[in-house]
C-alpha cells in the first residue's frame, strides 16, 4: 500500500512507494488548518495550532448547552453561533460578537456537571461560570451555559476531517456557487488540501499518510470513512445566513448514507506527530 510523505520542507504530499499512479503521484499542498474552540462558532484558520494524537489542541474544547433541555447547541439549529469568533491563549478564552463586544477570561468550573446526548451518545460536561455564558445568552436570545467537554466528545466524527480543493471546484461548478473555494469554512474541515482530481481523497481510505504542515510539523494520519453532510453547508460561514443549494446539489450527484445524507470529504485519525523544526 503506497504512502504519501512530505516533500522536503514544503507543505506537500508525494507518493514514495507502491505502483505508479498519475493521480496519486502528484503533490498536494496544505491550504489551511482550522477549527473552532467553541463548538458551532465560526470555523477559523489556526495556522500555528498544536496537534496531538487526538487532533488539534483546543478543537471544540467547549460548547454551549441548553441546560433545561440537556442539549448541546448545534450550528445547524443555531446559525447565529457562526457569527461568534473565538480565541484560546494560555487558557484564556475570548469570545467576540460581530458588534465588537467580547467576553474574555479563564472558564472556571462551577462544580456542576451535566450529561447531554450528542448524536445519541451521552457526554459528561462541566458547566462554567462567568461572562462567556451571559454574553452568548444575550446574543442567542435564550439562556445557555458554556461547558467544557472531554477531547472529542462534541466532535461528530474523527479527530481530523479533510476536504480537497478539486472536490470543492467540482461542487462549485455543479451548483453555480463559484465562490466556494473562498468559503471552505462551510465544510468545517480540519485540513484543506490542494488537489487536481475531484474526490481522490476517497481513494485513500485505510492508508497511513504523512502531511507536513508549516509551523505545525509532520502528521502521520490514517484516512477513514467519508463524511455525511447536513444543512450546515447551506449556511454562510461568516453570517450564518441560509441561501445556497449546496446540499441539494450534493444529494443528487454524490453517494449517500442510509439517511440520505451525501458524502463530501473524509475523516482521519492522527497516528504520529513530530514538531516543526525551529527556523
TrEMBL record:
<dbReference type="GO" id="GO:0003824">
    <property type="term" value="F:catalytic activity"/>
</dbReference>
<dbReference type="GO" id="GO:0030170">
    <property type="term" value="F:pyridoxal phosphate binding"/>
</dbReference>
<dbReference type="InterPro" id="IPR005303">
    <property type="entry name" value="MOCOS_middle"/>
</dbReference>
<feature type="domain" description="MOSC">
    <location>
        <begin position="133"/>
        <end position="279"/>
    </location>
</feature>
<feature type="region of interest" description="Disordered">
    <location>
        <begin position="1"/>
        <end position="25"/>
    </location>
</feature>
<dbReference type="GO" id="GO:0030151">
    <property type="term" value="F:molybdenum ion binding"/>
</dbReference>
<dbReference type="InterPro" id="IPR011037">
    <property type="entry name" value="Pyrv_Knase-like_insert_dom_sf"/>
</dbReference>
<protein>
    <recommendedName>
        <fullName>MOSC domain-containing protein</fullName>
    </recommendedName>
</protein>
<dbReference type="InterPro" id="IPR005302">
    <property type="entry name" value="MoCF_Sase_C"/>
</dbReference>
<dbReference type="Pfam" id="PF03476">
    <property type="entry name" value="MOSC_N"/>
</dbReference>
<dbReference type="Pfam" id="PF03473">
    <property type="entry name" value="MOSC"/>
</dbReference>
Amino acid at each position: 500500500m503506497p504512502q504519501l510523505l512530505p516533500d522536503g520542507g514544503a507543505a506537500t504530499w508525494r507518493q514514495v512507494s507502491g505502483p505508479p499512479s498519475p493521480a496519486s503521484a502528484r503533490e498536494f499542498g496544505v491550504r489551511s488548518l482550522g477549527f473552532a474552540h467553541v463548538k458551532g462558532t465560526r470555523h477559523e484558520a489556526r495556522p500555528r495550532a498544536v496537534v496531538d494524537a487526538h487532533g488539534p489542541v483546543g478543537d471544540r474544547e467547549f460548547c454551549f448547552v441548553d441546560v433545561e433541555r440537556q442539549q448541546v447547541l448545534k450550528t445547524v439549529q443555531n446559525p447565529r453561533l457562526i457569527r461568534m469568533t473565538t480565541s484560546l491563549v494560555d487558557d484564556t478564552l475570548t469570545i467576540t460578537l460581530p458588534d465588537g463586544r467580547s467576553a474574555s477570561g479563564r472558564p472556571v468550573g462551577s462544580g456542576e456537571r451535566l450529561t447531554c446526548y450528542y448524536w445519541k451518545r451521552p457526554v459528561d460536561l462541566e458547566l462554567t461560570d462567568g461572562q462567556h455564558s451571559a454574553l452568548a445568552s444575550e446574543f442567542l436570545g435564550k439562556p445557555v451555559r458554556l461547558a467544557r467537554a472531554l477531547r472529542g466528545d462534541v466532535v461528530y466524527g474523527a479527530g481530523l476531517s479533510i476536504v480537497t480543493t478539486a472536490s470543492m471546484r467540482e461542487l462549485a461548478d455543479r451548483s453555480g456557487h463559484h465562490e466556494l473555494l473562498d468559503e471552505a469554512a462551510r465544510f468545517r474541515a480540519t485540513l484543506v488540501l490542494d488537489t487536481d482530481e475531484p474526490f481522490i481523497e476517497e481513494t485513500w481510505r485505510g492508508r497511513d499518510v504523512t502531511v507536513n504542515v508549516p509551523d505545525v510539523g509532520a502528521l502521520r494520519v490514517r484516512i477513514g470513512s467519508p463524511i455525511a453532510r447536513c444543512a450546515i453547508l447551506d449556511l454562510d460561514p461568516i453570517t450564518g445566513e441560509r441561501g445556497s443549494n449546496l446540499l441539494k446539489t450534493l444529494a443528487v450527484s454524490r453517494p449517500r448514507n442510509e439517511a440520505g445524507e451525501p458524502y463530501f470529504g473524509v475523516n482521519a485519525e492522527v497516528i504520529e506527530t513530530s514538531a516543526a523544526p525551529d527556523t
